Amino acid sequence: MRLLFASAAILTLAAPALAQPPSVPLIERAKLFGNPSKTAGRLSPDGRWLAWIAPRDGVLNIWVAPVADPAAAKPLTAEKTRPIRSYYWSPDSKTILFVNDKGGDENFLLYGVDVATAAQKSLTPFDKTRVEVINISRAVKDRILIGINNRDPRWHDVYGLDLATGKLSLVLQNDGGYAGFVADEQLVPRLATKQRPDGGQSFYRVTGGKVEQTPFATIGLDDSLTTGPSGFTTDGKTLYWLDSRGRDTAALIAQDVASGRQTIVAQDPRADIDGVLADPKTGVVQAWSVNYLRDDWIASDPAIGKDLAWLKKELKGDIAVTSRTDADNLWTVAVDPVTAPSATYLFDRRTRSLKQLYVGRPELVGAPLVPMYPEAIPARDGMTLVSYLTLPAGSDPDGDGKPSHPVPLVLFVHGGPWARDAFGYNSWHQWLANRGYAVLSVNYRGSTGFGKKFISAGDLQWGRKMHDDLLDAVGWAVRQGVTTSDKVAIAGGSYGGYATLAGVAFTPDAFRCGVDIVGPSNLFTLLQTIPPYWEAGKQQFYKRMGDPTTDVGKALLRERSPLFMADKIKVPLLIGQGQNDPRVNVRESQQIVDAMKAKNIPVTYVVFPDEGHGFARPVNNIAFNAITENFLAACLGGRAEPIGDALKPSSAQVKEGADQVHGLAAAVAAP
Fold this sequence. Notes:
The protein is α+β, with helices and mostly antiparallel strands. Helices cover 18% and strands 32% of the residues.
C-alpha cells in the first residue's frame, strides 16, 4: 500500500476496519507503562530482610522490610526525579547499593544506603564518571570491587570499596587499555580482557596485582559475542566459561585453573547457554538455562532439580529464581504467566512452601491480557528466525495462534542489534494487541542467543540481510493470514529505531507508517559520537557495521544510512528522542527531521530534555505512547485512548508535526 504526499500534507486515507470485539475493555496506558507497584524483590544474604523497588511520591525508590513482616516495609531512598532501576545487597546485609545517572546521561555513580538508619552517601562522588561493579562476593563481607573511569574516560581502574567507611583503595590501575577484569571470590583480580584489532579478544592472567603480558587465551571476531569467562568457584580452583570455540552455540565450560583442563558442563545445539544457578557457598554451578523458543532450566544438582520441578508445577508460567540467601534456605522466585501480571514469591526450601510477596502490576489483574506465541520463521536463505507473535483479544477464537481473519500488524523490532527478543509478558505487545493489532517481534540475524553463526550472519548487513529478515517475517505473517501487506507498521527503539528508518526509507512500499525511538539515521556520525568508555568495543562496531577509517567502510556506512534516502520516505513517521542520549546522539534524529523538512515531507518529532537512550521516567513513556497510539490509529485504524493531558506531567517537547497526530496540537496548546 502506497501513501502519497501532496505538498506538505498527508492525503487522508480511510483507516482499515478492525473487528476488535467491543466487549474487550481498553487497558489504560498508565496501567501498562506507569510505575509498577513493586519490582525486583530480593532477599538479603543473611535472610533477615526483603528489598524491592516501588514508587515513593511517584518515583521508583528502594524499600526494605523484615522477611517475617513484609507489610512493615519502609522506603530506604528518596530519589525525587530519576527512578532507581537496579540495586545490590552488600554481602554483610547492612547496606543496599544502587547506581543512578542524571537525565539519562549514563554516567552511573554508586550510592550506598544503610538499612538500619536509611542514611545515604555517595560512594563515587566524581564528575563525568561511569562506575562498573566488578564483583560483590559472598565470601568477603566488608568490601566489594568496582571499576571507575574518572582518570581516563576510556578505561576503568579497579578499586576496592570499604563498605563501612566508604574508602576507595586502588587495586589495579588500567594503563594497558583493558576492556574489563574478572576477580575471584576473594576479590583478587585474576583475569583481564583486551580487544584485538581483528575485533576479537585476548585474555590475560593477573598475578600479584599485575597483568601478564602474554595472553593465555585468544578468540576471534566470530566468538567475541559468545565466549568469555563467567566466574570462579569460591575456592578459586575452577573457572567457568561460556564458550563457543570449536562449536556454534555457547557451551558452559568448567576449566581447572591448575591444569587448564576443560570439561563441558552443558551445551545445546539450538541456542547458547543463557544463565546459571550456582551454590551460594561453593560457587559450583547447579543448574543452567537454555532459551530457544522459551526459557528452559536443567539441573545437575538433584536437590535443585526437585525444587525447580516443584516450583514449575505450582507456579503457572515461566519461573526465575531472583535471589538466594547465604544459607540457601530461602529463595525469591518470580513467575511470568504472560496473560496475567507477574508475581514474586518467597520460597522456603525447608518446608517447600510458597508465600506470595506481591503482584508487580495489580491493576492488570483481570485485564484482557493475551497469550504470546513463539514462532520459528524461515528466512529466504534458510536461516530460522525465532519470533514472537501476539494477537488481539477475540481475533483467535480457537487459540491456534492464527487469527480467524487478517488484522493490522505492528512489526516491533528489538534494539542492540546484539540482543534478542524473548518469550514473556511484554507491555508493548499487550498494549498494541489491546488496541487491535497483531504484534510481531523477530530475532533477525545478528541477534544474540542463537550461536555465533547467526550473529556473524549479520556482519556488515545493517539495512540489508538484517532488514530482509524483517521483510521475510512480514511475508510469513501475510501468508499465514495474520495480516495483509497493506496494513503493516514498523516500530522499535535503538537498532529497532534504525530498522524503522531503514524500513520507510529503503523499502518505502513495505510499511504503512513507522515509529522510531532513539534510532540512528547516519551510521557514520553514530560511530563518531559513541561514548569514550566504549573505546574497547570500537573494533567490534567497525567489523560488524563498517569501518569509518577506510574508504570502503565509509561508502558502506553511507549506503546503509537512512538519512541519505530520506527523500524516499512517503509514509507517516513519528520520532522520539532523548536529549541527553550518549549512545545515539540527538543529532541522529535531528538530521533526518531536517532532511525531511527540506523536502517538505511531514514528520512528527518529540524530544525529551531529561532523557537519554530511551525513556526511563514513566510520565515520559506514557506521553510518548499517548502520541504513538493516536498516530497508529490514523495509520492502521486501531483503537486509541485520547491523548488528553498525558503530556502535562512529562517533559515532552513536540518539535515538529503536532498537526499530524489527532489530538496532539490541542495537547501541546493546553495550559
